[in-house]
């Protein structure tokens, strides 16, 4: 699943008329990088949620056939935040574990690493803390994600989850973060530290920086 329902307030005015995942990085829509990498890892069945300008997202991506993907959409109308969006899409995600990636990041993370299900309720990919998030989110100790221990790393927005993580949740708007923190307290969250390239493309300045970097790479 690619999370693509955010309004992109920090990206305005770029997102006033374009969904944030369709903003271009080095000449290619940000979300297309995800689709290509997921398909390259053998993950062809993709669910994309949307709210703001969601019809434009569907028009641009279609059924995913041009990339060898099979895309289904979870339309929210009003954005349900990360947890609420995943919860709404559960009927489309099947019975087994599923991978989720935030639509507003760019990374060269090899998704094929996450082919197996998590040891517990979730498996999170953590990265070094970026300048805009210096305190991080979670600690990683012997492959186990812990919420209160320091030093902390930053949650990349890439994770594999079991549907059981959402047991007891009600439909509506809610964040994924409290669920992950509670599961981590219960020692039900595994993780890894990815040291490759990862960027939170959350502002026009960071969008420009990543575009310039990839353009130099060719």
Concise structural overview:
The chain has 218 residues and is an alpha/beta fold.
Can you describe what's shown?
The protein has 218 residues and is of the alpha/beta class. The protein contains five helices and 13 strands. It has helices spanning 30-40, 54-61, 81-93, 177-185, 204-217, and strands spanning 2-3, 24-25, 28-29, 45-50, 70-75, 98-102, 105-107, 122-127, 139-141, 144-146, 154-161, 189-193, 198-200. It has a five-stranded mixed sheet. Strands 2-3 form a two-stranded antiparallel sheet. The chain has a two-stranded parallel ribbon with strand order 4-5. The relative contact order is 0.18. The mean pLDDT is 91.
Helix content: 25-40%
Name of the CATH first level: Alpha Beta
CATH architecture: Alpha-Beta Complex
SSE arrangement, N to C:
EEEHEHEHEEEEEEHEEH
Q: Quick one: how many beta strands?
A: 13
Number of helices: 5
- The poorly predicted ranges are none
Please tell me what the overall shape is: globular
Which sequence of strands runs across the widest sheet?
1-6-11-8-12
Whole-number tally of structural domains: 1
Rounded mean pLDDT is 91
Oligomerization status of the protein chains? single chain
Span between N and C termini?
A: 28 Å
CATH topology: Spore Coat Polysaccharide Biosynthesis Protein SpsA, Chain A
């Amino acid at each position: 699943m690619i999370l693509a329902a955010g309004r992109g307030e920090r990206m305005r005015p770029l997102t006033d008329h374009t969904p944030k995942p369709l903003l271009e990085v080095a000449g290619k829509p940000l979300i297309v990088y995800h689709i290509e990498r997921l398909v390259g890892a053998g993950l062809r069945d993709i669910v994309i949620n949307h709210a703001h300008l969601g019809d434009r997202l569907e028009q641009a991506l279609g059924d995913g056939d041009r990339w060898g993907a099979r895309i289904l959409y979870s339309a929210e109308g009003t954005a349900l935040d990360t947890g609420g969006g995943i919860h709404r899409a559960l009927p489309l995600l099947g019975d087994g574990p599923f991978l989720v990636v935030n639509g507003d990041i760019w990374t060269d993370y090899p998704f094929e690493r996450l082919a197996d299900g998590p040891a517990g309720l979730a498996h999170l990919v953590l990265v070094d803390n970026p300048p805009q998030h210096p305190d991080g989110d979670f600690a990683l100790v012997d492959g186990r994600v812990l919420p209160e221990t320091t030093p902390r790393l930053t949650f990349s927005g890439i994770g594999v989850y079991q549907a059981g993580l959402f047991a007891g949740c009600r439909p509506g708007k809610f964040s994924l973060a409290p669920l992950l923190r509670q599961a981590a307290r219960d020692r039900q969250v595994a993780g890894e530290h990815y040291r490759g390239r990862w960027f939170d493309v959350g502002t026009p300045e960071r969008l420009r920086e990543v575009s310039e970097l990839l353009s130099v790479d060719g």
